[in-house]
Amino acid sequence: MSYTPVNPKVMNTPSPQGLPLRRMLATDSKTWKKGELFFLTSGAPEPVAGSGKTNVWGIFAEDQDTSTSSTTVWVKQLILDTLLEISVMNAASTAAIASTNIGTKYGVEALSNITYLDLGTASGQFEVTRLASDYMPEQSGRQTTDFDAAAGLCEVRFSTV
Protein backbone atom coordinates (compact mmCIF):
# COMPACT_ATOMS: atom_id res chain seq x y z
CA MET A 1 0.00 0.00 0.00
CA SER A 2 1.41 3.36 -0.94
CA TYR A 3 0.52 6.72 0.52
CA THR A 4 -1.46 8.95 -1.83
CA PRO A 5 -1.89 12.58 -0.75
CA VAL A 6 -5.46 13.75 -0.32
CA ASN A 7 -6.99 17.17 0.29
CA PRO A 8 -6.58 18.66 3.76
CA LYS A 9 -8.64 17.04 6.48
CA VAL A 10 -10.21 19.10 9.28
CA MET A 11 -8.90 17.67 12.55
CA ASN A 12 -10.47 20.11 15.01
CA THR A 13 -12.25 23.45 15.00
CA PRO A 14 -12.89 25.87 17.88
CA SER A 15 -16.60 25.91 17.00
CA PRO A 16 -18.75 23.14 18.51
CA GLN A 17 -20.86 23.26 15.32
CA GLY A 18 -17.85 22.76 13.04
CA LEU A 19 -17.04 24.98 10.09
CA PRO A 20 -19.86 27.25 8.85
CA LEU A 21 -21.50 25.90 5.68
CA ARG A 22 -22.36 28.57 3.10
CA ARG A 23 -23.78 28.83 -0.45
CA MET A 24 -21.78 31.15 -2.69
CA LEU A 25 -21.71 32.09 -6.34
CA ALA A 26 -18.47 30.51 -7.64
CA THR A 27 -15.87 31.85 -10.05
CA ASP A 28 -16.71 31.10 -13.69
CA SER A 29 -14.86 28.49 -15.79
CA LYS A 30 -13.28 26.55 -12.92
CA THR A 31 -13.48 22.98 -11.65
CA TRP A 32 -12.54 21.51 -8.26
CA LYS A 33 -12.92 18.55 -5.95
CA LYS A 34 -14.56 18.41 -2.54
CA GLY A 35 -11.99 19.24 0.13
CA GLU A 36 -9.89 21.60 -2.01
CA LEU A 37 -9.00 24.91 -0.41
CA PHE A 38 -10.06 28.14 -2.11
CA PHE A 39 -9.56 31.89 -1.97
CA LEU A 40 -11.94 34.67 -2.99
CA THR A 41 -11.81 36.57 -6.28
CA SER A 42 -14.21 39.51 -6.27
CA GLY A 43 -16.15 37.72 -3.52
CA ALA A 44 -16.40 34.40 -5.42
CA PRO A 45 -14.61 31.16 -4.39
CA GLU A 46 -11.79 30.10 -6.71
CA PRO A 47 -9.68 26.96 -6.23
CA VAL A 48 -6.02 27.33 -5.33
CA ALA A 49 -3.92 26.82 -8.46
CA GLY A 50 -0.14 26.72 -8.54
CA SER A 51 1.90 27.80 -5.54
CA GLY A 52 2.24 30.71 -3.18
CA LYS A 53 -1.33 31.29 -2.00
CA THR A 54 -1.61 33.13 1.31
CA ASN A 55 -5.21 34.35 1.11
CA VAL A 56 -7.21 31.14 1.65
CA TRP A 57 -10.82 31.57 2.80
CA GLY A 58 -12.40 28.12 2.90
CA ILE A 59 -12.94 24.55 1.68
CA PHE A 60 -15.16 23.39 -1.18
CA ALA A 61 -17.91 21.12 0.21
CA GLU A 62 -18.77 19.52 -3.16
CA ASP A 63 -17.20 18.59 -6.50
CA GLN A 64 -17.56 20.62 -9.65
CA ASP A 65 -16.35 18.50 -12.55
CA THR A 66 -17.63 20.71 -15.38
CA SER A 67 -16.71 24.37 -15.87
CA THR A 68 -19.83 26.49 -15.79
CA SER A 69 -20.79 30.08 -15.22
CA SER A 70 -22.99 31.43 -12.44
CA THR A 71 -22.82 28.25 -10.34
CA THR A 72 -23.92 28.43 -6.72
CA VAL A 73 -21.86 26.04 -4.60
CA TRP A 74 -21.60 24.79 -1.03
CA VAL A 75 -18.42 25.79 0.82
CA LYS A 76 -17.12 25.63 4.38
CA GLN A 77 -15.62 28.80 5.76
CA LEU A 78 -12.34 28.32 7.62
CA ILE A 79 -12.26 29.93 11.05
CA LEU A 80 -9.19 30.95 13.03
CA ASP A 81 -7.46 28.17 14.98
CA THR A 82 -8.98 25.36 12.91
CA LEU A 83 -6.55 22.43 12.78
CA LEU A 84 -6.03 20.63 9.47
CA GLU A 85 -3.97 17.64 8.41
CA ILE A 86 -2.20 18.43 5.14
CA SER A 87 0.40 16.91 2.82
CA VAL A 88 3.54 18.89 2.03
CA MET A 89 5.12 20.17 -1.19
CA ASN A 90 7.84 22.57 -2.23
CA ALA A 91 7.97 23.95 -5.79
CA ALA A 92 5.45 21.38 -7.13
CA SER A 93 7.35 18.40 -5.70
CA THR A 94 6.52 16.37 -2.61
CA ALA A 95 8.68 17.44 0.30
CA ALA A 96 9.66 16.15 3.70
CA ILE A 97 8.80 18.12 6.81
CA ALA A 98 10.84 18.24 10.00
CA SER A 99 10.50 19.42 13.58
CA THR A 100 12.38 22.59 12.54
CA ASN A 101 9.24 23.57 10.55
CA ILE A 102 7.04 23.57 13.68
CA GLY A 103 5.89 27.11 14.49
CA THR A 104 6.47 28.43 10.95
CA LYS A 105 3.59 29.72 8.84
CA TYR A 106 3.37 28.73 5.17
CA GLY A 107 1.10 29.28 2.18
CA VAL A 108 -0.48 26.53 0.10
CA GLU A 109 -0.21 25.21 -3.45
CA ALA A 110 -2.32 22.86 -5.54
CA LEU A 111 -1.55 20.12 -8.03
CA SER A 112 -4.15 17.87 -9.72
CA ASN A 113 -7.01 19.02 -7.46
CA ILE A 114 -5.06 18.38 -4.24
CA THR A 115 -4.07 21.27 -1.96
CA TYR A 116 -0.70 21.01 -0.17
CA LEU A 117 1.24 23.03 2.38
CA ASP A 118 3.80 25.01 0.35
CA LEU A 119 7.18 25.07 2.12
CA GLY A 120 8.36 27.52 -0.55
CA THR A 121 5.93 30.22 0.60
CA ALA A 122 6.73 31.54 4.06
CA SER A 123 4.50 34.03 5.88
CA GLY A 124 1.27 32.23 5.01
CA GLN A 125 -1.87 31.36 6.97
CA PHE A 126 -0.99 27.80 7.96
CA GLU A 127 1.24 27.33 11.01
CA VAL A 128 2.81 23.90 11.43
CA THR A 129 1.82 22.58 14.87
CA ARG A 130 2.74 18.85 14.79
CA LEU A 131 4.26 16.30 12.49
CA ALA A 132 2.22 13.22 11.58
CA SER A 133 4.97 11.10 13.11
CA ASP A 134 4.11 12.71 16.48
CA TYR A 135 0.36 12.04 16.41
CA MET A 136 0.52 8.80 14.36
CA PRO A 137 3.75 7.16 15.53
CA GLU A 138 2.54 3.77 14.33
CA GLN A 139 2.80 5.07 10.75
CA SER A 140 6.36 6.41 11.08
CA GLY A 141 8.02 3.08 10.29
CA ARG A 142 5.91 2.76 7.15
CA GLN A 143 7.13 6.11 5.77
CA THR A 144 10.30 4.58 4.44
CA THR A 145 8.77 1.41 3.00
CA ASP A 146 5.12 1.73 2.00
CA PHE A 147 4.86 5.51 1.90
CA ASP A 148 6.68 7.92 -0.39
CA ALA A 149 9.65 8.74 1.84
CA ALA A 150 9.68 12.34 0.62
CA ALA A 151 5.99 13.06 1.21
CA GLY A 152 5.52 15.00 4.43
CA LEU A 153 2.28 15.05 6.39
CA CYS A 154 1.56 17.41 9.25
CA GLU A 155 -1.03 19.25 11.30
CA VAL A 156 -1.40 22.99 10.72
CA ARG A 157 -3.37 25.74 12.45
CA PHE A 158 -5.29 28.18 10.23
CA SER A 159 -4.40 31.75 11.23
CA THR A 160 -3.97 35.22 9.83
CA VAL A 161 -0.97 36.12 7.69
List the helices and strands and how they pair.
Blueprint: E1 9-12, E2 21-25, E3 37-41, E4 44-47, E5 50-53, E6 56-60, E7 72-77, E8 83-90, E9 93-94, E10 105-111, E11 114-122, E12 126-131, H1 132-135, H2 137-140, E13 153-158
Parallel strand pairs: 8-11
Antiparallel strand pairs: 1-8, 2-7, 3-4, 3-6, 5-10, 6-7, 8-9, 8-13, 10-11, 10-12, 12-13
| Rg computed from alpha carbons, rounded to a whole number of angstroms | 15 Å
Overall pLDDT confidence: 88
Strand order of the largest sheet: 8-11-10-12-13
Q: How many strands, which pairing sense, and closed or not: the largest β-sheet?
A: 5 strands, mixed, barrel
Strand content: 35-45%
Task: Please explain how this structure is put together.
By secondary structure, the chain is mainly beta. The protein folds into two domains: 17-47 and 55-77, no CATH class; 80-158, no CATH class. The protein has helices spanning 132-135, 137-140; strands at residues 9-12, 21-25, 37-41, 44-47, 50-53, 56-60, 72-77, 83-90, 93-94, 105-111, 114-122, 126-131, 153-158. The strands form two sheets. It has a five-stranded mixed beta barrel. Strands 2-7-6-3-4 form a five-stranded antiparallel beta sheet, with no helix packed on it. The longest helix has 4 residues, at 132-135.
List keywords for this structure.
5-stranded mixed beta barrel, 13 strands, 2 helices, 2 domains, single chain, mainly beta
Short description:
The chain has 161 residues and is mostly beta strands. The protein contains two helices and 13 strands.
